[in-house]
Backbone:
């Protein structure tokens, strides 16, 4: 099955998988070293920073990458240079970044006091990390659209490798400030961009200008889906601090637990590069049998991943978060059970969402994520212990999203041929660097 999926992607996609694997490993090393080096309060602040950075960064800048990649791929098929797309994409990313920075600066006081225990420097690091993600995702869009996947994978690998090296130095030298562990999220991705800049610079300049409409065509719905999907999977840590700012132990322990139970998501990221193009090919030709067969197999794979991950997390999770991350002993086997069920449902939602995208049903995907986040908010506001509320919210939100997507897919039981949709669109958006 995996060999068949790999044949559906352009040469070089394995390099992206290797980069994703290294970047995923870096997340575990980063948090493990920080957990053993920082106090509970400081690790809690880093956990909140981590959750905000990846919720906003992936949520708003991955769609920019996808749209840049889509338009670059379309122009490449016509023999047109990508320079004008890069210029528009850079302006678009800068505009989105400016909006985020204005909002963060306007809420500087509450963010500092409520989420970072009065440490204003962490808000500055937050802005720096978002700048780094804006630059990284925009350049990755060009690399993906040009199918320069070895360069794409190299950027991910440099980012991950440098994160590991930097936190190792911080740990070995006894650094105990969360500021420095946060700065890793600024320096590493920027270094990855700089070291993979040559092909991007060669793509700059020249060519027929790109109309804004070509780049903005699907950006709104993509951004809604991307941002809300990150809210579902990341907002729990933030909510712990919002609901009870004094409970620093639970926030740090929850992030450590989420990193463990979400191991199957890292595996899925490597399969995602081939899943969307495969589904899109079947949808474009109206091949019902191939579309449903690939969808069923993908659901089977993620179900197996989710179940295996759940067994390990429930059995060993409480011990692992203490041993690997030096997290407080505040989460038990039952907490990991809820988180594991939520992750399995989230995996289903990711696969079903790819099916909706392959059918060019961006609006339906956005609707499902909206309904899921509404359910998450409702559960978060119910009276219960803080940990249980955020765990149940993640679980219910993910289940609702997956169920909504399944219902929306059943409304279109047969993929209809869509010759007006270029397969380059699917190939361009099939590779994702959105790993935590």
Residues:
């Amino acid at each position: 099955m995996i060999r068949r999926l790999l044949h559906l992607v352009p040469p070089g996609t394995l390099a992206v998988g290797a980069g994703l694997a290294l970047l995923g490993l870096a997340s575990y090393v980063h948090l493990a070293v920080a957990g053993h080096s920082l106090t509970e309060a400081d690790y809690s602040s880093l956990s909140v920073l981590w959750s905000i950075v990846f919720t906003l960064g992936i949520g708003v800048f991955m769609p920019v990458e996808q749209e840049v990649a889509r338009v670059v791929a379309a122009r490449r098929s016509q023999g047109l240079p990508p320079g004008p797309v890069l210029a528009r994409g850079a302006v678009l990313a800068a505009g989105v970044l400016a909006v985020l920075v204005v909002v963060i600066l306007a809420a500087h006081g509450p963010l500092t006091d409520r989420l970072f225990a009065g440490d204003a420097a962490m808000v500055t690091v937050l802005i720096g990390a978002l700048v780094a993600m804006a630059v990284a995702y925009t350049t990755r869009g060009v690399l993906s659209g040009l199918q320069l996947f070895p360069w794409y994978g190299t950027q991910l690998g440099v980012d991950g490798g440098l994160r590991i090296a930097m936190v190792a130095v911080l740990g070995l030298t006894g650094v105990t400030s969360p500021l420095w562990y946060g700065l890793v999220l600024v320096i590493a991705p920027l270094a990855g961009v700089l070291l993979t800049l040559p092909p991007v610079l060669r793509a700059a300049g020249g060519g027929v200008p790109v109309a804004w409409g070509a780049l903005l065509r699907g950006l709104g719905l993509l951004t809604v889906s991307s941002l809300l999907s990150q809210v579902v999977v990341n907002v729990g840590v933030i909510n712990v601090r919002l609901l009870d700012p004094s409970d620093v132990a639970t926030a740090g322990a929850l992030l450590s637990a989420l990193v463990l139970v979400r191991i199957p998501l890292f595996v899925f990221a490597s399969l995602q590069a081939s899943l969307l193009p495969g589904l899109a090919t079947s949808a474009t030709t109206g091949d019902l049998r191939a579309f449903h067969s690939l969808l069923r197999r993908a659901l089977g794979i993620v179900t197996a991943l989710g179940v295996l991950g759940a067994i390990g997390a429930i059995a060993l999770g409480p011990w692992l978060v203490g041993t690997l991350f030096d997290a407080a002993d505040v989460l038990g086997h039952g907490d990991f059970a809820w988180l594991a069920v939520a992750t399995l449902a989230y995996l289903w939602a990711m696969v079903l969402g790819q099916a909706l995208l392959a059918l060019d049903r961006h609006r339906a995907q956005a609707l499902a994520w909206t309904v899921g986040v509404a359910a998450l908010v409702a559960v978060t506001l119910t009276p219960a212990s803080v940990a249980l509320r955020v765990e149940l919210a993640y679980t219910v939100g993910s289940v609702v999203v997956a169920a909504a997507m399944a219902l929306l897919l059943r409304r279109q039981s047969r993929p209809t041929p869509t010759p007006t949709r270029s397969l380059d669109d699917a190939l361009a958006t099939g590779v994702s660097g959105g790993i935590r």
Observations:
- The mean pLDDT is 86.
- The chain has one domain: 2-429.
- The radius of gyration is 21 Å.
- Residues 2-429 form one domain.
